[in-house]
Amino acid sequence: MPAPRPLRDIAVVAFAQTDHRRTSDDLSEVEMLMPVLHRVLARTGLKTGDIGFTCSGSTDYLAGRAFSFTMALDGVGAWPPISESHVEMDGAWALYEAWTKLLTGDADTALVYAYGKSSPGSVRDVLTRQLDPYYVAPLWPDSIALAALQAQALIDAGDTDEPALAAVASRSRASATDNPHAQLRGSVPRGDYAVRPLRTGDCPPIGDGAAAVILAAGDRARDLCERPAWIRGIDHRIEAHGLGVRDLTDSPSTRLAAERAGAFERPLDTAELHAPFSSQEVVLRKTLRLDDGVDVNPSGGALAANPVMAAGLIRIGEAAARIGRGASDRALAHATSGPCLQQNLVAVLEGDPR
Amino acid sequence: MTEVLKAPLVVEFPFTRSLGPVQSAFLTGLRERVVLGVRTGDGRVLVPPVEYDPVTSEEIGELVEVAPTGTVTTWAWNHEPRRGQPLDTPFAWVLVRLDGADTALLHALDAPGGPDSVRTGTRVRVRWAEDRSGAITDIACFEPYESPNPHELRDPYSGGAAALVGSDGRFEDPVTGIVAPARLDYTYSPGRAQSAYIRSLADRRVVGERCPSCRKVYVPPRGACPTCGVATSEQVEVGPRGTVTTYCIVNIKATHTANLDIEVPYVYAHIALDGADLALHGRIGGIPYDQVRMGLRVEPVWSEAGGHPDHYRPTGEPDADYETYKELL
Q1: Taking CB atoms and an 8 Å cut-off, how many pairs form between chains A and B?
Q2: Does the structure show a pLDDT above 90 at A1?
Q3: Are B61 and B176 members of one domain?
Q4: How far apart are CA A165 and CA B189, in angstroms?
């Protein structure tokens, strides 16, 4: 069944992100976020008051700072009162909410932003708090441990091996040499086992960062941007929460989201995949049937910079920016949330024919 | 630039959660050293059991006992156990499909032989915790279990797994809830603007920041003007005197140990310090609670312990005119 065409043409017209760093303790969240908001608005010439809808993604657990998203709003300049919303999810899901808002015709432009400061806490432990509170969270299985269980399942299934995982990591960091915002780039050692079979090199860097995107509909998008990245389809799906119920070597939710977003209807030239662990790229490539003709994570991906809550939105932003500068005509952007690729969002972005 | 401040922050609290009927039976079973699964409409047995079929979302509740022995379906070697994890010596995280189940349970495997002794397919059995309360941690961990003869697993008469006790999932005194403690440790930093503000307090000065666009002075500063959405950086000392803009009378005794000597009733007020465009709040002392009023002029009484003023007291000046503070209410 072909994917339904969106009711309205909506595009990413601007993208900005911080340089992602191991720590940003000299800055509060709003101090870290604000320059990114200013930059993304400047790229379109819009002011806060011109924006129809604002939506953000973040989580207070990361920095241990209650209601941090309300303080981050200080950086937007939310007066007179603006139309605004927040998701306790990666900013890619905030973008999904903004996209639906624009589809309704209630707004023609949207500002979407996300930020995460992992440096104040221990993100491996913080992420255990999103797990099933009855059967799983009391065991405190950290994010690397859960990814390692998935990696071993892939090795057992013959889908990958440790050298192939190392190759994913080194290709990502090599690509990131062209990305001035990346945290890890160039030659990064495979390192010792973090949780076997994953080595430190298979894991994303821990760091702080923020990103912002502006969406616009129809002619407004053409006014604001030379080459808008049109969202031809976007969808997100989730799998059963029980890890032992799932086949960890596959990602049916990604495949279904990709089908609904129209990913398989025509060839792609670029894919920005949100795979924080090298083994997760193996799952996504298989699930999305990406061949060698697709440039995967030219930005370096989450293995080069993984500001939690923003890394998924950055995939959409990077794909759109690539279309904007004419390096891509049809790109897939993917975002994930939860352990072992539990929830997945896929967007298909296209530039106008040149 | 002011050096940023940092301090340890522990966020810790117990979550009290109620259980559905299937979860209650499963966790009560663990207390009684019995592992229960639940059967789905298409006959699969889910362990750990859930209240709704993860595929069809149908409500399910037929409990099935499974064996305390099973097979590792995937594993990961954890050489550095972290706080809260089931074992404090190196162990393998495992997904285990128990004999009689169709899905796998996450837990720890105590494998004294190290990572080279573990593989997918390793046979394991439950090691029960000494003290069991009806929680997933009633399984202390799994341990390797070499069954010399796989046929031993089946009871020769019933054909069922030999280790079963024949539970129907009904127990005396079932658990109906769990208390799950959670603790996360942070190193908190308030960032540039608030660090500068807190440092000034140490010198008994209150320093706000001015918005370069609307010129308002924010106290305490948070680094951004919430109206204009731009960074504030120009530091402006305000006060020390100020005006009570509004207040309330508190009749509830403070429970925090630092405040035990504050008698009720007392007054908590919004105070617009002279030169500030935002009121901050503080306790009013040195005056009977029922004589505090809007417009009262006050000044800080600093604490020997440092930090914010302990409270504010009347200056004795005439009350401020309403027109001078009405925009700050």
Answers
A1: 190
A2: no
A3: yes
A4: 36
